[in-house]
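In this section we walk through a basic example: taking a raw amino acid sequence and producing a predicted 3D structure, encoded as discrete structure tokens. The instruction is simple. Fold the sequence below.
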Amino acid sequence: MGEALRVGLAGLGTVGGGVLRLLEANGALIARRAGRSIEVVAVSARDRARDRGVDLSALAWEDAAAALARREDVDVVVELVGGADGPALTLARAALGAGKHLVTANKAMLAHHGLELARAAEAAGVACKFEAAVAGGVPVVKGLREGAAANRVERVTGILNGTCNYILTKMEADGRDFAEVLAEAQALGFAEADPSFDIDGVDAAHKLSLLASLAFGTRPAFGAVEASGIREVIAADIAEAVALGYRVRLVGVAEAGAGGLFQRVHPHLVPVSHPLAHVAGPLNAVVVDGDFVGQLFFSGRGAGDGPTASAVVADLIDIARGEFGPAFAMPADALVEAEPADTGERRNRAYLRFTVADRVGVLAEIAAAMRDAGVSIESLIQRGPGADGGVLVAIVTHDGPERSVAAALERLRDSPSLTGRPICMPLLEA
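The resulting token sequence is shown next.
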């Protein structure tokens, strides 16, 4: 058995503690699989005095995380600090600049600076690995980078945020509205005190940009991801979706074609025949469609100390074996800068929901706006009036360009007949 792989660990929160516990519990097995032991020799965190439930007495402590990169007894730096910039990016740059391998769970940093870090790793001949950055313990990064490497990937579709999926599936099960279920999720620890990063789709957009880069050989382009969250989804939308044979999920979709790179995170109506419709609670799942392999489905826990630590240590085992290649599946200079697709030309069916005043002529006004914009209506359902006196109108459109639906909604934007903001959710085809 070879010399130990020596690790400097920055960040001793939930995941950092999980890494230490995992290496202690399964150390002998990991060493057999890696061909050598993996040992944390130094750590860094903001609060030295905090009790983290793990024994740190034998480990060197660095108050500044970047100091781990300068230690001669560290072979690989694990960055679990978080944040797109600041100390996390300083540490990542320092580690790669010093010729240390880098393992990170930081999707925000990679979404913004992944190309730079990939180039730095290649220049130094070291690894930049990030299995834990997307879908926690689900090995989708390895699946795309290695398992599907021979395929032309046609599409990547995924449920990439466990907080949103928990809220939506709880709304479906209980018939309750968003705000009530969000408060419960916060009380249970499934949602942060400030949940904006999750419920507005930003977290999922970071992850989708990384999956798109791996799948299509493009530079990470977080800025080109269209991201919408779930704040506007109400219990009535969930109920209408179920009645139509669908379930509401926050879905990330990435496709590359002649028209450019399409990347979007948005609530969708997912048919019950689609595998993503059956992903419940805080789970994550990704569907990859390849030209030769067909459809691959990855699912599991997308967060938490155990799953995320498992992904971090899996990356460490690869490094211990000497098994690593370019961060994004091909050399950084081979990654292309894809033009964003014109989403207005994208065709699909859509679910539209309006809350309107209970008076004569409202349905005719909505139908006229659809007609004038060239939107064909497949079905229209009216519910109400509700307790607030408003009437719910739900429309499913025929297949057509998104530009037409946007034009219809713009025609209705200032209508006094609407008592609330409409919502539009694409129908995800099976």
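Looking at the output, two observations stand out. DSSP finds 13 helices and 18 strands in the chain. The first strand starts at residue 5 and ends at 10. In the next section we compare this with other chains.
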